[in-house]
């Protein structure tokens, strides 16, 4: 699919399967999500531009590679996005963090925004939007709309699972935003759940329901 990368690394696929199992406990689900998020982060940042800096090792001077440009922004769509943040911040501890509160009205399945916080200079940064589930795409579209309103121009979207319907809606609304996911599932059911999916990601990671 155009603009969509499926991260098929065996470790990602293995961990995802355990997360999907209904008997996986909240503690295991959360740990796996943190582990998998570092692997997803590795892939979504694989083509970041490097610059060099003259440094001195204990042996000699050298031009050594470093990430170029301003620090990344990880934009978490609350609340389930936070499950991906922790592992990503372990890998990129200097990243800035944006929180976007959008919940899905369970009847209309439409996004309702209740919180937005982001660094002021979004136009100068790569923004990686994270949400484990790209279901209808409505929340993700709304979150990216908001980031663009605030000046972001260089945006990527990272999730764990996507539905074909969500990918279609999202890529139509934001064709300039590449999508990275560990898997594309079969379909969305009438309640807006990804099938076969893993259930409600927020509930599974926080033990709510
Ligand atoms: N959000 C979830 O947490 N799970 C789904 O299956 C769809 C949306």
In short:
The chain has 209 residues and is an alpha/beta fold.
Structural notes for this entry:
The chain is an alpha/beta fold and 209 residues long. The protein has one domain (4-49, 67-206): Rossmann fold (3-Layer(aba) Sandwich). It is built from 6 helices and 14 strands. The strands form 4 sheets. It has a 7-stranded mixed beta sheet, sandwiched between helices. It has a 3-stranded parallel beta sheet with strand order 8-10-12. Strands 2-3 form a two-stranded antiparallel ribbon. Helix 1 (10-20) runs antiparallel to helix 2. It is globular. The mean pLDDT is 95. Uracil binds at residues 80, 133, 135, 192-194, 197, 200-202.
Indicate the percent of residues in helices.
25-40%
CATH fold-level topology: Rossmann fold
What is the global morphology? globular
CATH architecture: 3-Layer(aba) Sandwich
Give the neighbour order of strands across the main sheet.
Answer: 1-11-9-7-4-5-6
The level 1 CATH classification is: Alpha Beta
Q: Work out the radius of gyration.
A: 18 Å
- What hetero molecules are in the model? uracil
Number of strands: 14
Residue stretches low in confidence (pLDDT < 50, at least 5 long) are: none
**Structural classification:** alpha/beta
User: Whole-Å distance between the termini?
Assistant: 34 Å
Q: What does the main sheet amount to?
A: 7 strands, mixed
Proportion of residues in β-strands = 25-35%
Counted up, domains total 1
The residue-averaged pLDDT reads 95
């Amino acid at each position: 699919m155009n603009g969509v990368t499926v991260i098929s690394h065996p470790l990602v696929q293995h961990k995802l399967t355990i997360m999907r199992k209904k008997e996986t406990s909240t503690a295991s689900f959360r740990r796996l999500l943190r582990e998998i998020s570092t692997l997803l982060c590795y892939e979504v940042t694989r083509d970041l531009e490097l610059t060099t800096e003259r440094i001195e090792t204990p042996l000699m001077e050298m031009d050594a590679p470093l990430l170029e440009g301003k620090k990344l922004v990880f934009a978490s769509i609350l609340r389930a996005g936070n499950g991906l943040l922790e592992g990503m911040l372990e890998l990129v501890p200097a990243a800035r963090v944006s929180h976007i509160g959008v919940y899905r009205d369970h009847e209309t399945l439409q996004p309702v925004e209740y919180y937005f916080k982001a660094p002021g200079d979004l136009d100068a940064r790569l923004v990686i939007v994270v949400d484990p589930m790209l279901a209808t795409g409505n929340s993700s579209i709304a979150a990216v709309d908001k980031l663009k309103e605030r000046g972001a121009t260089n945006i990527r979207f990272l999730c764990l699972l996507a539905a074909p319907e969500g990918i279609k809606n999202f890529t139509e609304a934001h064709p300039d935003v590449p999508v990275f996911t560990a898997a594309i599932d079969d379909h969305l059911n009438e309640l807006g759940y990804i099938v076969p999916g893993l259930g409600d990601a927020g509930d599974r990671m926080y033990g709510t329901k």
